[in-house]
Amino acid sequence: MKYIKLMVWGVSLCISNSILAASVEDYSRHSDYYNVKISPDGKHLAVLVNDEGKKKLAFLRTDNFELTFALNSNNNGQPADYYWVNNERVIVQVVQSRGFLEQPINMGEIFGVNYDGSKRKMIFGYRSQGGIVYSGSGGFLIDKLAGDKKHVLITKQSFSRDGDVLPEVVRLNVYTGKERRVKRAPISYSQFLVDNDGVPRFVVGADKNAKTKIFYREGKGEDWQPFDQQIDGEFTPLAFSSDNQSVYALKTDPEKPKGLYRYDLKTSTETFLYRSEIADPTYAIKSDLNEVYGLRLDEDYSSYIFIKPDTQEAKLHKALIQAFNGDSVEITSKTQDGKQMVVHVSSDRNPGSFYLFDTETMNARFLLASQSWIKKEQQASTEPFRLKTPDGLVLNGYLTLPIGKKENLPTVVLPHGGPHARDYWSYDPQVQMLANAGYAVLKVNFRGSDGYGESFMEAGYGQWGTGIQDDITLALNYAIQTGVTDKDRVCIFGASFGGYSALQSAIRQPDMYQCAIGYVGVYDLPMMFDEGDIKTIKWGDAYLDKTLGTDKAERIAQSPARNVDKLKAPVLIIHGKDDQRAHFEHALALKDALDKKGHPYEWLVKDKEGHGFYNEDNILEANKAILSFLDKYIGAKN
Q1: Are strands 225-226 and 256-264 parallel, antiparallel or unpaired?
Q2: Contact 320, 364 (CB under 8 A)
Q3: Distance CA 90, CA 164 (A)
Q4: pLDDT, tens only, 446-483
Q5: How confident is the model at residue 16 (pLDDT cuts 50, 70, 90)?
Q6: Which among 245, 278, 438, 567 would be 20 to 30 A from 292, CA to CA?
Q7: Residue by residue, what is the 3-state secondary structure of 240-265?
Q8: pLDDT value at position 160?
Q9: What per-residue confidence (pLDDT) applies to 133?
Q10: Residue 547: which H helix or E strand, with range?
Q11: Cβ atoms within 10 Å, residue 187
C-alpha cells in the first residue's frame, strides 16, 4: 500500500480565513458546508452550502471546480439530504420553514434535478404533480437500486396521528415522479432492509408496548413472517451479503454490548464476527458489493475494526486513517469505478473537512472545511476516562481542559440528552466555547445511555432522578479527586434530558454545585404523559412507563419542579416556546416553583424555537447568557 499524499490546495466558495482566536460568535454559527458527494462518473461534485442561514445545493466540475448550477432555497423550501442517482441526476430531500418554527421541517418531499439545472421537478410529496401521491405522506430514500438509472426505492410514510398507518416501500421514477407500491410493512413505526436486488426482505418496528418486532420474507412475492422467534436476543439486520444468502446483523447478549454476526438465512446458523467489551458498534462499513468489511467503534476515542482486512476497501480506509493521524474518517461517496472518493475527516478539535481522494495516485486533495474560521490548533483536546460504579457498571466519559491549564479549574458538568443517547469523542461547539472561556468540561455516559448494551441502558430505567444522577456525581468526584476541578466552582449545564439532569443533580447534591443551567429541559415527570410529542405516539405511554417507572409518587419525587425546596444553586432557564418534545409547560412549571420559593433564577425564552435553538441570533444570545451566568457564579477569570 502506497503512502497517502495530502494536498492542501482546493476549492474555495467565499471561505473566511480569520486568524484571531475563536469567539463566542464563532461557536454560535452554523457550518458553511454540510456535505460533499461525487457523481458516479467522477465528473461533478455536489456541495450543500449555507447561504445566509438557508441551504443551497451547488454543482461543480471536478476538474476545475467551475460552478455549473446552484439549487437555491426559497420561501417554499430548501435542499437538505441529497443523493446522486446517476451521472446527471440528484434527488433532494426538501425541508420547509413552517410558519411558527425557526428550524426547517422535513415533510418527506423529494425534488429531482440534473447537475446543470435541467429537468427540475418535485417528484414526491404533497406538492408533486406526478404519480399517485396522497396528502400527508412523506418519502425517504431506502435504496438507489444499483443498475437502475431511473428509479429508487423510498419509504412512504403517512404523517397522520393515527399510529396504525403502515409504511410502504415505493418504487419511484426520479424524472417523472411516477410511483409503484412494492410492499407494505406489517407493523407501524417500522424500517425496511432491502437485499441487493432491491427486494424488501426485513422490516423492524415497534408494537403498542414499545417492544421491537422483526419480520422477514424469503423473496419477492412472499409474505412477511415473524423473524424474532428464530433468534435469541435483540437482532438488528444491517446489510445483506453480496449473494443475498446471509445478513449481517447486530445482536445483543446478556450483560454485554451488541456483537456483529453473519446469519445464514437458509441454514439459520450464525457466525460471530466481533464484539467490544464495552461499546456497541457505532455503524457498519460496507463495500461496493454491500459486504460489511469493518465497523466504526467508539469505546473511548473513535476507532475502526476491519473484519476483512485484506480487502481493497479495508486497506484504503486503514491508510486514510493513518494519513489523518487517527482522526475520524468517513467515505461520503465514491465513483462507480472506485477510483475517486470524497472523504470527510473530523476530530475533537476539527468540526469537519472534505478531501477528494484518488485511489490510484493515493493523493488526498483538500476541498472544503465545514467551519473554516475554527482553527484546530486553537481548540482544546478532549481526553477519555473510565470509571466503575459501586454496583459494577463501567462508565465512559470525557474531560476537556482549557489549553495550557490542568488543575484547580472552574468546571462545567455537561450531561447529555436522551437519556438514551451518548457522548462521543468528537467536536462539540459548546464544549470548545466553554474551554475557550477557561472552563474544564466534564461529560459522562451514565447508566441508561445508548451504545453500551441493553443491560446498561436498562440499568437507567426508573433511575432518571437517582442512579443516573449518582453516576454524574461519581464523574464529578473523579474530576475533583484528580485535581482538575476546583470543588467550590462547579456548574452543571445540559439540554433536554441534560437540562433535567442539571436541575435534578443540583437538587440531589445541593452542596456540590454553585449554579445550574437547564436548556429545553423536562422538569416535571408526570407532565410528560400530558404535554409534548411523546404522548402522541401509539407506544408513548408504554415507553414512559418502562423508562420512568410506574410508581407515581416516585415520579413526583424525581421531578425538579416539585422539589425546588432542596435546591441551593441559582438557575438559568433557557427554552423555546414552541418546543414539542420538552414542552414549554415544563419551563413554566419550574419558573412557577422558583417564584413561589423566591429562589434566584434567570430566564431566556424565544418564540418560534423548538427543541434547541436554530436561529443564529438566538443561539448567540443564549451562549452569551450562559457565559455571563457562569462568570457570575464560578467565573473562570476570578
Answers
A1: unpaired
A2: yes
A3: 33
A4: 999 999 988 999 999 999 999 999 999 999 999 999 99
A5: very low
A6: 278
A7: ECCCCCEEEEEEEECCEEEEEEEEEC
A8: 59
A9: 42
A10: helix 540-548
A11: 18
CA–CA separation, 584 vs 580, rounded Å? 8
Q: Strand, coil or helix: what is 551?
A: coil
CA gap 167, 189 in Å, rounded: 8
Say how many Å lie between the first and final Cα of the chain, rounded: 54
Nearest CA-CA partner of 168 in 189, 188, 185, 192: 185
Measured CA to CA, the distance from residue 554 to residue 509 in angstroms comes to 18
- What pLDDT, in 10s, does the model give residues 75-110? 778 899 999 999 999 999 998 765 555 677 777 899
Q: How far is CA 174 from CA 60, 89, 158, 478, 544, in A?
A: 21, 8, 20, 55, 41
Provide the whole-model pTM. Answer: 0.90
d(CA 454, CA 461): 11
CA dist., res. 413 & res. 443, Å (int): 6
* Alpha carbon distance 180, 209 (integer Å): 32
- Tell me the β-bridge partners of 226: 215
Residue 3 has pLDDT above 70, yes or no: no
Q: For residue 80, is it within any domain?
A: no
Spatial CB neighbours of 236, under 8 Å, sequence gap ≥ 6: 204, 249, 250, 251, 258
- Give the length of the chain: 638
Residue by residue, DSSP assigns 11-58 as --SS-----SPP-TTGGGSPPSEEEEEE-TTSSEEEEEEEETTEEEEE
Predicted pLDDT at 166: 87
The domain in which residue 598 lies consists of 380-634
> All 3 cell numbers of residue 435?
474551554
The answer to whether residue 471 is domain-embedded is: yes
What is the rounded distance in angstroms from the CA atom of residue 480 to the CA atom of residue 627?
Answer: 22
Tally of domains within the chain: 1
User: Is 459 domain-assigned?
Assistant: yes
Q: What are phi and psi of 586, to 5 degrees?
A: -65, -45
Q: What was the pLDDT predicted at 1?
A: 44
Is 293 inside any structural domain?
no
Rounded Cα distance between 4 and 83, Å, is 27
